């Protein structure tokens, strides 16, 4: 891709470690996780629940401190919120007392900046939300709410977009529609995207690379390149290669969880 | 900076669940609006009940000092109103003055205290004590200390309304939605910005509930305090009329008080509809 320096990744996770002290003792959510994300690359993180993928994402955003290791954005450590990083949350996370326009205006209000009307209108039109400015979140469907959340995240033109299981609550048709929308937007305006999901299919559809994490302690178990051409049509998604990759990832996740079961023969070797 | 991972899946909207002013009372339908048929039915029931009472009192020739007829009460309200009006004014001054003082203190304390969970834990039992103690009990003492003027009643109203506002507002401010706070923080919001743009609007529905309950408790306390001592106010009218066995006038004052209560309810209901309908 067109990274400024081939050697400096856009986002680098270096031996990220995060321990929580709970009533029942210390708990290691992340254990020396390392991961490089190149500029304008889409990387998905999948793994069993409780593997620390959300913790990893929040650490990347700079909102949570690590207990060890570091996160580098363009080679500089991330500490605290960074304007270059946009976040799309689980379940849209719109403010219910604000209408759509006011919700999208929210980041600018916090920053005390004038919103870029042209860009926002372009985004709204891009996701098919023009004319809904006066609607409140409860008047919008789940998919529309998440579209609005994407517009809000992109309104500040971030160079990195962190997406935390954004479509997990949507039905599968809406989810596929949203996936295609993310791909389209990305093809339009290349952005570095880190995408957390439970859905292997979603991960493969969207990503240049899929990172599989294992649980307790949270670690990067495996990485798979996803070399299929874009835009990824239904035909591509129905090929044998996609199916094999999907199974290989599934095997990694389930194999990691039910370790008592004998490992089944792996059908696809990790590319990376 | 708190450092817990926001649990989106568990607490969907907020701790403490959904609150709504519109479903606070059985008086309002689920949709908030009543159809013409329903209004007609309500009016019809009122006519039947009032007419029935009137008829029963007339046919059994119940003496006026036991229970005056609705028509007599209506007449008394009409003829005596010029005499009652100044007392209504006194009560309103006490209510508004005491409520303004109590509610402001309660709101500020709730906002401040919920920022410090530890302090809140220590203070909580005392707040509960303030809420559960009928402030009316302090009125004789307040009169002894401040005389028979406005002061003891305004203080009593403030003491009754303040804790009610505070406890409800605190519940509102405690409804922390970590995802929404994280959102604000991701744009670099300050603590003050998070308070005004996230916590305060999230707390608003509960604050309105607190203000309404506080106002109604304030009315109760104002009237009660007037009954204890002093020569003015609607409470004073109640004791005066009952001691003179002027029952139609007595009930006219009761009617004025219930109208006041309903007005308080309607006022906050409308405010809630305008500013907190997003949670309905």
Molecular structure report:
The complex is a heterodimer of chains A (272) and B (280). Chain A has 272 residues and is an alpha/beta fold. Chain A folds into 2 domains: 1-84 and 159-272, P-loop containing nucleotide triphosphate hydrolases (Rossmann fold), CATH 3.40.50.300; 92-157, no CATH class. Chain A has helices spanning 53-61, 100-111, 117-126, 142-154, 172-188, 200-206, 234-237, 240-257; strands at 11-22, 25-37, 42-46, 68-73, 76-77, 85-88, 160-164, 192-196, 209-214, 219-225. Chain A has a 6-stranded mixed β-sheet with strand order 6-7-8-3-9-10, sandwiched between helices. A 4-stranded antiparallel β-sheet of chain A has the order 2-1-4-5, with helices on one face. In chain A, helix 2 (100-111) runs parallel beside helix 4 (142-154). Chain B has 280 residues and is mostly helical. Chain B has a single domain, classed as MetI-like fold (Orthogonal Bundle). Helices cover 72% and strands 0% of the residues of chain B. Chain B contains 9 helices and no strands. Chain B has helices spanning 36-59, 70-113, 117-132, 139-146, 150-174, 178-186, 191-228, 234-243, 247-275. In chain B, helix 5 (150-174) runs antiparallel to helix 7 and helix 7 runs parallel beside helix 8. The A-B interface holds A 54-55, 58, 61, 63-65, 80-81, 83, 85, 87, 89-91, 93, 95-97, 106-107, 109-111, 136-138, 156 and B 3, 5-6, 8-9, 12, 179-180, 182-189, 193, 197-198, 201-202, 204, 276, 278-279.
